Amino acid sequence: MIEGPYVVLAVLGALTTGLMAGVFCAFSVLVMRGLAALPPAQGVTAMNAINASAMTPVFVVLFLGSAALCAVITVVTFVLWPDHGTARLLVGSALYLCGAFGVTVMANVPRNETLMRKEPGTPEAVAYWPVYLREWTRWNHVRTLASAASAAVYLLALI
Description:
mainly alpha
């Protein structure tokens, strides 16, 4: 079992990555399905509005704070190398940093930017919309699973 500051770090890691898993999951199973049911022009407009308003302080603190916390856990683990839970702490961090934060930067955000440049209702936007829905949601599933797995691994580090 891990001890000292690792307990606090693992609990905070589990909480923040678990919350992000919930956010990503809600998008995959609720929001994207609802947007897919709309006519393409309305779907594009709605998703662009969501993306434009997504950077709220709460979301930014939770999303970037989770990444920062995972980075701190990684550095502290490498520097102090605890007797127990080392692999779990590092795997939990890697899952979120690569599978959630990295996927967001490399896959979801570029698709959001491409969609934002399209004028809703144009043939180009209508043609791109089903591609966007499929690809964005697929990558969002990865973010969901990576965040949930990160939370689970951090919890396992506690036992």
